[in-house]
Design a protein that fits this description.
alpha/beta, TIM Barrel, Lyase, Ornithine Decarboxylase, Chain A, domain 1, 8-stranded mixed β-sheet, 7-stranded parallel β-sheet, 11 helices, elongated, binds pyridoxal-5'-phosphate, Ala_racemase_pyridoxalP-BS, pyridoxal phosphate, pyridoxal phosphate binding, EC 5.1.1.1
Length: 344
């Protein structure tokens, strides 16, 4: 096999959902935008529905279509981007619930889909999506008169528990939803970990389900094994890879493995990472190229067939940190080229 093996553990996904659900005060939904954080929205959605999730969130109406096909008619699917121009048919035909973000979206929704379920997204300070306090104050009675199914907002700094923005947004969200007799939602993964003040009626975890920080107790969901294409010996003073960026200091055995930045192993990640054979760590050396990575396997007693890049020693967050990014980006960048296998 010349392609790398990406293994996705759906049992771990389900366990992460159940464990986050046990931490949450109210209902626990699941965020499956971006094709289930890159892991296949059909399998991810079906697994989480079996685990007990009843409500799902996607970013765009088109993503909701794929999820509806996977889940059947009965479960709730909500769309963070709301009711965009051109979405009306999809929202109607696939029974998707837009989280309305603006006055324009609200007018569009009430005019084109009267009686169709909707929620309202409020901006409690992040200044990204949702109605601002003044807009909401003006429209609140009209909106509530049409029976929204949810009012929600999103935290900007929930992955930093000590950040004063958390308490500030909590206060603003409380003020904006005071006396509103509609289920409320504020917390994603980070918000769940901030404690029950942040939970309200429904939590919306994403990254924690998929094994990423800030949920430190998450079970890892993916592992990645890279096949060795070739092994060679290099002498002290010889270089490896583009730009001669790595030079051997000792007689070194180099394994060239099949995966690179075209597979989402972004070029910036090189230094500081290892590839593993069992528990033995072998450092990545030289530049990550489009399809290939080079690894110093001198300390192995046998030439390996595969080297593992993502595993319980080295998680998506370690890989992300080495590249100056976050686990979310590693997951959603995983390429189309992997041989994917799903267990559970
Ligand atoms: C992506 C997203 C979530 C899930 O966030 P995680 O940090 O992945 O748990 C929840 N709510 C909104 C509005 C989002 O955009």
């Amino acid at each position: 096999m010349s392609t790398a093996k990406l293994s996705i553990n759906l049992d771990a996904l389900a366990t992460n959902w159940r464990n986050l659900d046990a931490l949450s005060a109210g209902e626990t939904a699941a965020v499956v935008k971006a094709n289930g954080y890159g892991l296949d929205v059909t399998r991810v959605g079906q697994t989480l529905a079996r685990a007990g999730a009843r409500n799902f969130f996607v970013a765009a109406a088109e993503e909701g279509v794929a999820l509806r096909r996977a889940l059947g008619p009965d479960l709730g699917i909500s769309v963070f981007s709301g009711h965009m121009d051109g979405d009306t048919r999809l929202l109607q035909d696939f029974n998707l619930t837009p989280m309305l973000n603006s006055v324009d979206q609200m007018l569009r929704h009430f005019e084109s889909l009267p009686g169709h379920s909707f929620g309202v997204q409020l901006d409690s300070g992040m200044n990204r999506l949702g109605m601002e306090p003044a807009e909401w104050a003006a429209l609140r009675d009209i909106a509530l008169g049409q029976s929204p199914v949810l009012v929600m907002s999103h935290l900007a700094c929930a992955d930093e528990p000590g950040h004063p923005m958390n308490a500030l947004q909590l206060k603003v969200f409380r003020e904006m939803t005071e006396g509103v007799e509609v289920p409320r939602s504020l917390a994603a993964t980070g918000g769940i970990l901030l404690g029950s003040d942040y939970h309200f009626d429904l939590c919306r975890p994403g990254i924690g389900l998929y094994g990423g920080q800030p949920y430190g107790d998450a079970l890892p969901v993916i592992s990645l094994d890279l096949p060795v294409i070739q092994i060679r010996d290099v002498l002290p003073g010889e270089s490896v890879g583009y730009g001669n960026s790595w030079i051997a200091r000792r007689p070194t055995r180099i394994a060239t493995v099949a995966a690179g930045y075209a597979d989402g192993l972004i070029r910036a990640m090189g230094a500081g990472l290892n590839a593993f054979v069992g528990d033995i760590a072998c450092p990545l050396v030289g530049r990550v190229s489009m399809d290939l990575i080079t690894i110093d396997v001198t300390d192995l007693t046998e030439d390996p067939e595969y080297l593992s890049l993502i595993n319980h020693h080295q998680t998506i967050d370690h890989v992300a940190e080495a590249a100056g990014t976050i686990g979310y980006e590693i997951l959603t960048s995983l390429g189309y080229r992997y041989a994917r296998s799903y267990a559970g």
